[in-house]
Amino acid sequence: MTPLLDARDLRKYFPVRTGLFDRRRRFVRAVDGVSVTIAAGETLGVVGESGCGKSTLGRLLLRLLEPTAGEIQFAGADLLRMGGEDLRRQRRQLQVIFQDPFGSLNPRLRVGEIVGEGLEIHGLARGNAKRARVAALLERVGLRADAVERFPHEFSGGQRQRIGIARALALEPHLIVADEPVSALDVSIQAQIVNLLQDLQEELGLAYLFIAHDLRVVEHISHRVAIMYVGKIVELADAVELYRNPRHPYTRALLSAVPEPEPGAKRERIVLAGDVPSPIEPPAGCAFHPRCAYAIARCREEEPRLLGPTGHEVACHVFPA
Amino acid sequence: MPSDSMPLLDVRHLRTSFFIPPGGEARAVDDVSFTVEAGRTLGLVGESGCGKTMTALSILRLVSPPGRIVDGEVIFDGRDLLRLTEAQMRALRGNEIAMIFQEPMSSLNPLFTVGDQIAEAVRLHEGLGRQAARARAIEMLRLVEIPEADRRVDDYPHQLSGGMRQRVMIAIALSCRPRLLIADEPTTALDVTIQAQILDLLQSLRQRFDMALLLVTHDLGIVAERTDEVAVMYAGRIVERGRVAEVFAHPLHPYTRGLIASVPKIGARKQRRLATIPGVVPDLLHLPSGCRFRDRCAIAVAACSTTDPPLEPHRGEHLAACIRAGEPLPARGPAEGRGAPP
């Protein structure tokens, strides 16, 4: 079966100016050769620390950013060659939920207008039909019908995120890119939103690209998980497999660093030295080698490729899949 | 001199309110009591707006209008800080009690080198000369494990990563060897691997200097792994308090139990749905009668709307503010997955 989304070797290089008289062209390699697939109804979790390129990857897949290189097939069509009316139609099926539910909702519009806007733009519903559709969407995400007349600031963070979800659902998408959708929320509210996203997936057969830095939430919601480090995927596996049997030293360090709400639980913590390197001049070879306790000579010279059987791929010379 | 059995910090019936015209009073901290023993770590945990940061700021008397400390005592080493003059308080802040915040970038002055900022602190409190203060700054940067400290001392804050900036903040906070460090969400803005580095550093420095730590956080994982005692706050009140191992093993208050259950655990993907606490935190200006948590509580009974439950011992030193503390919870909470409508 062909996947819903099939992205191959995506790259996004942002030019940077380092100084007034610096004429060298330098680039931030935000996404540097990433390939992912997402099946209908599937959740692919993308995890990594600040600056690893996970949000840029999400924006490339939505075509909110033009990739420097690569291919994106979405629902059987070449997303990057599309323009005008075709692209607009395709975008309906490709929606987004952002981290900050405040910054991503227009404060001057009423909730009814925010959720119904897309219906009108895409000519899907008007007048009474639109009102009925908006009311059904608000009910589905757990908001009261009178929310229609209110403004975003009248809602709490969790409720604003529900509004964002209703807006994304309005166009009946097949894939939703959720960029840190629960990071700004308190833990009790976070659980409400995660459950809502899972219910919607079950009911509507939605696929999610779930971008987050919280490994606990990602494990819970994802079918497969990709770990990113400095613009590349370093490990990609089924969620159960990845958390049970992590291979890449970076994945293992990440997992061991997550504080667990169990006092006295016996765990081996791998504390990484140093900071994430600059994506402008990442280290030669494996970008992780300066922080890696297992690095060998080959790691400093040769960049490891993401290899392994479907279900568990790793980019590491020392711990291959 | 205070005796050894006295806690280093003893907060008693602290109340801090925000006065919002006309006549509104938001009780951000409402009758909060706890102690921190010398050399120990207390985790103050709760969700946004529960009053944990305001409690920390009240201890240092850093609450600004329209907020005001209304009542209570903050006894530090035998002295009630709420009765000191502003000059006495200034001498104490950063000296005997220091504080670090979530966002190190906004606490550091972008116009001065990190060395200058550490030196300023030690010159102010210890009256060291310029050369000695600079040497001390380098020593402090080494202490917080900043590589190439003698070079980094001349860096400006923007030249450092988030983790390095937090190390600088810790260096400034510890430069005068405080006996109590208040850390307000010190790692919330940091990535998880950097968070582990900073928490390790705090823990080792706390032991080395025999310092007490009040760790304010929203993360139950951090509390479980890094503190000796925990106080759980909800809507301005402490609802549960006790030793960490005891509270996590036998949480008594339905709020604490809900919080612990709603954190997904690594490698425990057994339940498909996460436990939730329905609804949202109440508005401090319009608190419900009786127990503040009753609207969201799965085991509330009629008496909960008339009784404001006091924080009482239930299992030895383990305190909870709930008339149904420890009663069994239903398998699934009411209206699960749906928040209360606005």
Q: Could you explain the architecture of this structure?
A:
- The complex is a heterodimer of chains A (321) and B (342).
- Chain A is an alpha/beta fold and 321 residues long.
- Chain A has helices at 54-61, 84-92, 111-121, 127-140, 157-169, 187-204, 215-221, 239-244, 249-257, 297-301; strands at residues 5-16, 26-38, 43-47, 69-74, 77-78, 94-97, 175-179, 207-212, 224-229, 232-238, 312-314.
- In chain A, helix 3 packs across helix 4, helix 4 (127-140) crosses helix 5 and helix 5 (157-169) packs parallel to helix 6.
- The longest helix of chain A has 18 residues, at 187-204.
- Chain A is globular and about 70 Å long.
- The two termini of chain A are 25 Å apart.
- The model of chain A has no long low-confidence stretch (mean pLDDT 91).
- Chain B is α/β, with parallel strands linked by helices and 342 residues long.
- Chain B is 30% helix and 23% strand.
- Chain B has eleven helices and twelve strands.
- In chain B, strands 6-7-8-3-9-10-12-11 form an eight-stranded mixed sheet, with helices on both faces.
- Classes of the chains: A alpha/beta (321), B alpha/beta (342).
- The interface between A and B is large, with 55 and 52 residues.
